[in-house]
Input
Amino acid sequence: MYTLTGVSKTFRARSRARGMVTAVQQLDLSIADGEWLAVQGRTGSGKSTLLQLLGGMDRPSTGSVVLDGHDLSAMTESQLTELRATRVGFVFQAFNLIPTLSAIENVEAALVPLATPAIQRRERAAAALAAVGLADRAGHLPSELSGGQQQRVGIARALVKEPSVLLADEPTGNLDIDTRDEILSLIEQVSTANKLTLVLVTHDSAVAAHAERVAVMHDGRLTIDPTDTPID
Ligand SMILES: Nc1ncnc2c1ncn2[C@@H]1O[C@H](COP(=O)(O)OP(=O)(O)OP(=O)(O)O)[C@@H](O)[C@H]1O
Output
């Protein structure tokens, strides 16, 4: 599980006159194993920064981010790289696939940092693509796939690492409503099947309504409704 204590993140603004920007302020948060937490909030409220801190892509300026007893803020760069490669899957709004690689090669790419032998890489990537219903599109380039199919590849790329945490930043933001619902139910299904902790950033209240808990960011501060209960 995650325990965040007194987490703040400040950035130096590009223009000197603007000084520092506080993206996340004094945030305390616990996320249980297997929980499905949605994070909502206006643009610029700090949602993506929070996700980056949870994923070890960035370090807090103050406070601690502890995952299963390990303080991410105290880890070395190589420990964080290993954490990202093994424990945490990421899904992005713009899919972030490599355009010159086929679907299966995009999924395999997630295993390169682990030095997984090529045969195993191919087998695991094929299984991950099958798990998202895309076995028959393995050889297609991203440009030959619909938005929903590209996001399925993105989900397979996150799952192939066999992570314990899935972090999704507006994963349905580029999709029409029907495809949004398909992708959301796929994310829910794979998260349940693999007992993943799911933290999903969304502007969309219809998406957030599926979560067990909804947290709202406002100017870097987080509010959670303690009365929130799971919605079936
Ligand atoms: N690397 C950075 N350097 C400087 N400022 C940053 C950096 N990353 C984020 N910020 C600032 O921190 C604040 C929070 O940004 P963040 O991207 O976390 O918001 P967000 O809620 O995810 O927004 P959106 O919904 O538009 O993606 C913003 O004011 C942003 O400009």
